[in-house]
Amino acid sequence: MSLIIAYMGKKGCVMAADKRKIAYFGDKEELDTLESELYNGTIQTDDEFLQRAEELNVSVKITDGASKLLEIGEIIRGEVSSKGTFQTKRRRIYGTTNGFQLVELLGSQTQSRKAGNNGIIIFGNKYAKRLAQKLLSSKWNASQNLTTMREVFEEVLSEVSSKTPTVGDTFDILTKHPTYSETTAQLNLNKTIDHDIKLLARFRQDLIEKLVQQNLEIEMSYKIIDNGDIGRVVDIDGDELKVQLNDKTQAVDENWKQVVAPGQIVVMYSESDNVKLKDKVIIKDEKLCLKKDKSPLKCDVILCTL
Fold first, then answer.
1. Sheet architecture: strand order including 249-252
2. Scanning 101, 134, 270, 295, which has its CA 20 to 30 A from the CA of 157?
């Protein structure tokens, strides 16, 4: 759902991209029908797209705020991506004066990497690419300066966006023109890309760890005891009580790590002067208390079922 146009050569690098992102949900067969009509040019406007999606009972969300270009020092990166069931596929172009590299990633693993020195590269679906190539051929002049190239790219994006809803009508356009030879360009590209992919791998690992933690928190939240038996008082020292947990109760800390296993002792505190050995401890309506008189108790752990 993207269109990226990039020029790399001795004058520098110009890269332009729309900012559209489309998410849709529905029956696979209906989704395939909608995508086919999008990519062959049958659907040409946003209104037609939304109407056809409604006819096919497909839920659609269109946004035009997705930045697909990034400046990394003297290099511009453009990216299009598609999410699969388990991994995200990314196609990236890194460009600068006298050099570019095309990188394909699955997750954070490099699937292919190709280098070049100059040229015009277009990322997008077949229909949008075909339109862009035709427009560029009529507008392009090798003698153009970078400022004129920016204007041409914006014109092309604007015209393509009017003919397919896969391309939005708001754009980012970036320019870089450092003094790089072909050799220097590739050296800087290699260094930048290697670092960028490492950052992606680190980001994905952090994300996985956060998701694991979130899943753990969700799982443990269902185990927090709102009502039920906890254990019995086995020792009393002033306001400090030692409570032996029953065989179905554990205590965890704020990181959901078990700190007291079933059958072991948890320290609790009571302001009552009527606590006796073997008194039962319960949780009633989310409140920790003695069963016999509902006098409140306090502790520094979270009480959960196994």
1. 258-260, 249-252, 302-305
2. 101
